[in-house]
Amino acid sequence: MKSTLLVKRFLAVACLFLTFSGSLFAQSGGSAISGLVYEESGKVIEAATISVRNTATGFTTTTITDKKGYFELRDLPVGPYDIEVSAVGAQTTVLKNNVLNLGDRLVLYKIPLSKSATTLSEVTVRSNSFNNSVDRLGTGTAVSARAIQKIPLVTRNYTDLMVLSPLANGASLAGAKAGGTGYMLDGVSNRRATFGGISDAQFSISSETIREFEVSTNSYDVTNGRGSGGVVKAITKSGTNTLSGASWGYYGANSLAANKDINGNHLINNYKIAQFGGLLSGPIIKDKVHFLIAYDQYNNTIPFRAYDFTFAGATQAQAEKNLGITQANLQTIVNTLESPAFGFPTTRQYFGTISIQQRTQNAFAKFDWNINKKNLLTLKYNYLHFVDPNKLKSAGLLSTQYTGVEIDNSLMLGLRTEFNPHTTNELKLQFSSYRKFLNFLDNHVPEGFVNVNSTFSDGTTGNITVAFGDQNWVPERDASDVVQIIDYLRYTTGNLHFVFGTDNNINNITDRLSHDQQGQFYYASIADLQNNNPYRFNRKIPLNGTNPMVHVPLIELGVFAQMETNLRPNLNLTVGLRWDGQVIGNAPTYNPLLQEELGVNTHVVPFDAKNIQPRANLIWDVHGDGRDIVKVGAGLFASELTTQPITFSHIDNGVDFRQIDIRKNVPPAQWALYQKDFNAVPGVAYYNSLTTKQPATVLLLDKHLKNPLTFKTSASYYHYFNNWFRMGANIYFDNTWDNFYLYDLNLKRTPEFVTNEGRAIYVPASTLSNSTSTSYLPILANSRIAADFNQVRYFSNATWASQYFGAMIEAAAQIGRDGTFTISYAKGKATGTPPYDSGDPRNANFSVGSSYWDYSSYGKSWHSDGDQPNKIVALFLSPSFYGFSISSSFQAYQNTRYSAYVNKDIIGEANDGTDLAYIYDPNNPATPASIASGMKSLLQKTSPQFRQFLMDNFGKFAPYNGGIMPWRTQWNLSAAYDLKLGGTHKLTFRADIFNVLNLINYKWGGYTQIINTNLYNVTGFDQASHSFTYSVNQNAGTLQKTANYYSVQFGARYSF
Q1: What is the mean pLDDT of residues 903-929?
Q2: What is the dihedral of CA 917, 920, 921, 926, to 10 degrees?
Q3: 158-920+955-1055 adopts what CATH topology?
Q4: Measured distance CA(383)–CA(381) in Å, rounded
């Protein structure tokens, strides 16, 4: 009731300010046609009839001009249109060949009707998105159907076109978390709630069925919801009155790919791609019912690497240093695993390069029915099946590989109804199901970890942990069934255009996750591994012996209202209000002991009802001729949840599972037995035999959990020099509150002591010793507030805001009839975003500087993971010339960062590799002598970039993401030839080259990266000074040169 009252008050206040004038602008979410109708004398014509007809499908709609001669038709299906303009006593004029694309606003500034002539007048209008896309200037990047067909993409996945947006950094938009990106297909959500992205397959839907694509970062239309960073949109093709079809095939293989790496070494590859498919569309009943069906399959064989010493460096010696382990040590580990005591297969490969085969299959069907002139019904179905063995544990041997299968189904029904020339309604219903199954390739056994110290040929040393056995989270079932209901009611009265709507998701989550339930054996050294003498066993055990499926409904609600008008003929204003709310349906099991000891309740169902989002956008056509455009917009945008933390709150409630972490009297690691019978791994019976009660690991939701809310604002200026060339400049600012934040409630608030570098340690110094090779490392139990619990991960919201500042300049040109060239440069800075976005909560561990509990004081100024200081994008699509065409895309960017770490957990939070290194100044007398000596030696040999990073941070903790990687480039090129076979039949041959520079010269087209960012290895603990002792990693900050090596694909496409 309160939200409804706010909407009414908002619109009422807005109406007082919005008056007058006919319109030449439209800011609605769909495509539109508008214009002014005059007599030859210049007098406006009132009540002229405007009838538009989509010549491809027969869709028609009409309207009339107002007293100022103005008309507007909104939310039209895309396609080619004929526009008939008629008035009593005047000549009828037909404007032909007007093509509307996604979001186009075709403005017909003046349509003259003759009073003297009576015969029909036909006029051909060459309209295109270059001049019809005022709404998108500075707010989004659009890709036309022709560009989608022409731009070289390795897997022909339409979402890969996101790279063409100068504000995109992978799946992150405008510096936001990747989970803050929304995905829309035909106006409904295409986002997978589990991780916040879309499918892991090569594509979720064939690019052959995609008509248009857009990345929108600063559109202030209230119909854009649940995307605080931006929204990725696409619309699919429809059948037309013309029977048409296509079949295609693409091929690539070793003989068409690089065989030499950037160091001149032979590349071990087994690369092959084969894609094929077909599409058929046309009329079932002309002008009435149309269909489109398609099938696309992508098979690829790709190299899969783990500890590949022939690939990781220019020489064997350098490769060993880059990987942090000698090949001899790794071979010793493999030999041990293949021994009878461990029983791992002797027939499989454990490191190097193997080949894996993936398969993506997609089927699509769409039917459009023009029921009558008032109603258009659309039915669409999409099916995806993806087989993916491309999985590997970080730092793991190839034996940790597992396979995944994804199955998706989506069914959408849409109805567009025109009640009268002033009122239309669009209703969309979608049901989608998502299933992902992860399974083993080898026997089901626990995980194993062995700490390895290596001495390299130059006398330097390395320390890493090698993983073997099975994956932490396999087997697994991710599943959800989503019902989405969207409705838009659009109403026009005079100069006011309203839209009222609702956008709702009901997501039924049915996951079965098994993280930490496999069991984990830890070995302090290779010698201990050879003796099968683990120092630690850890496992999360279901107390009832089973791992039940989790059922959680997640309900997302949305309502919105928007009004648009023209303050003057060349000044358009849109104001709107949106509200989004979310309800998590089921509460996790209540844990009374947790509430008693830490005062928090697991049995909560957060309801976020405060996401009220006012928005406004102003477009000023300075001279009223479409040449100079100024745009200013601002508004609030709510983000969306990812669901794995919700699932884990039902699993890790501290009641149904217990975490055993055994450091003394570790149970025997009977690997050979586990190979035959996983049930032999210590489990419920072992837990019940323990005399000491074992603590529980908990993840709980903040009862006040909120969706992140982003304030976005932007300003743009564009100048059209003529009908084929424009330039523009844009500035952006975003401020996000309530970013998702996951932290440990059970860590002591006051440190037990502070080390000589000023680091807060949360375990008593008396618990640390040098008696063994691991006894100087903290044990989690000693840093707990409540001994009955391990980590108590609290899924909440950050108390500080993250920010993004950006600027972008771009130029675009039309070349000939169908060619284009665009170039843009964006500079940005994103700070303050906590790293956790989605997935396994154990990966949420943020980098810790001086104090775990002071993170908000220093983390808010650190660069975010989505930060992208520089990006250049250029796209060239040549005009067709005697059937030949060339397409080229180029990127140059900096968007990867690094820091410096201690290799092990030393604060007592049990997360290795997340404690930031304190950068000792070797010239400071207070620096321990061994560290000063090591730092001086490192500064002489490390890369210039890492050296400068260290020097800039002498006497401080290394800032997270404080170092920036060098620039990277990628240049792709496609050449195509259309062979006309008669009539509409055509055969297209094409060649796609990915990384052209690398094809020209194997030394080109690569990039350099900073690796080995663990600055210190922990070697012991000094009780006298209450400080840890370190050795300086003499290979830290190595500059490694590598590349995305070139490949060539040949293709043929027959169409009619």
Answers
A1: 95
A2: 160
A3: Maltoporin; Chain A (2.40.170)
A4: 7
Task: Work out the angle between the directed axes of helices 929-941 and 944-952 (0-180°, nearest 10).
Answer: 140
pLDDT one-digit tens code per residue, 52-107: 999 999 999 999 898 888 888 888 888 899 999 998 888 888 888 888 888 788 88
C-alpha to C-alpha distances, 340 to 138, 466, 523, 655, 671, nearest whole angstrom: 65, 20, 18, 39, 9
Instruction: List, for residues 740-779, the tens digit of each pLDDT value.
Output: 999 999 999 999 999 999 999 999 999 999 988 889 999 9
Question: Do strands 725-737 and 709-720 pair parallel, antiparallel, or not at all (unpaired)?
Answer: antiparallel
Range 127-130 contact pairs with CB under 8 angstroms and sequence separation of 24 or more: 127/97, 127/98, 127/99, 127/100, 128/99, 128/814, 129/101, 129/104, 130/723, 130/724, 130/726, 130/812, 130/814, 130/820
Rounded CA gap, 772 and 759, in Å? Answer: 23
pTM attached to this predicted model = 0.90
- Cα separation, 539 vs 537, whole angstroms: 7
Tell me the residue length of the chain. 1056
∠ Cα 967 971 977 (to 5°): 175
Amino acid at the residue 937: S
Q: Do 329 and 526 form a contact (C-beta atoms < 8 A)?
A: yes
- Give CA–CA dist 448/522, Å, rounded: 6
Quote the CA–CA distance of 40 and 641 in Å, as a whole number.
Answer: 58
CA distances from 424 to 578, 820, 880, 945 (A): 20, 35, 40, 59
Cα distance between residue 1037 and residue 949, in whole Å = 10
533 alpha-carbon distance from chain centroid: 42
Q: What is the bridge-based pairing of β-strands 93-100 and 121-124?
A: parallel
**What does the angle CA 401 – CA 402 – CA 404 come to, to the nearest 5 degrees?**
145
Q: Measure CA 534 to chain center.
A: 39
For the chain, give every residue range classified as CATH 2.40.170.20. Answer: 158-920+955-1055
What does 330-362 look like in DSSP terms, one character per residue?
HHHHHHHHTSTTT---SSS--SEEEEEEEEEEE
What Rg value do the Cα atoms of the chain yield, rounded?
31
CATH 3.30.70.1060 fits 2-132, yes or no: no
**Residue 372 CB-density burial (10 A; 0-12 exposed, 13-18 middle, 19+ buried):** exposed
- Locate 746 and state its tokens: 């059970």
Q: Taking a C-beta distance cutoff of 8 angstroms, is the pair 91, 65 a contact?
A: no
Q: How far is CA 384 from CA 356, 362, 482, in A?
A: 20, 5, 16
> Strand (E) positions, 532-627?
536-542, 550-568, 571-584, 607-621
Residue in 901, 894, 899 with CA at minimum distance from that of residue 867: 894
With contact defined as beta carbons under 8 Å apart, do 596 and 588 qualify?
no
pLDDT band at 29 (very low <50, low <70, confident <90, very high): very low
The terminus-to-terminus CA distance of the chain in angstroms comes to 56
Which residue in the block uniquely carries the two structure tokens 């022939």? 310
Query: Is the per-residue pLDDT at 445 higher than 80?
Result: yes
pLDDT in tens, 960-998: 999 999 999 999 999 999 999 999 999 999 999 999 999
Residue 411 scores a pLDDT above 60? yes
20 CB-near residues (< 8 Å, 6+ apart)? 495, 566, 567, 568
The structure tokens 């323990």 sit at 690
Residues of the chain with CATH 2.60.40.10: 2-132
The CA dihedral of 204, 208, 211, 214, to the nearest 10 degrees, is 50
* Per-position DSSP letters for 961-999, written without gaps between them: T-EEPPPEEEEEEEEEEEEEEETTEEEEEEEEEESHHHH
Structure confidence at residue 128 (pLDDT): 60
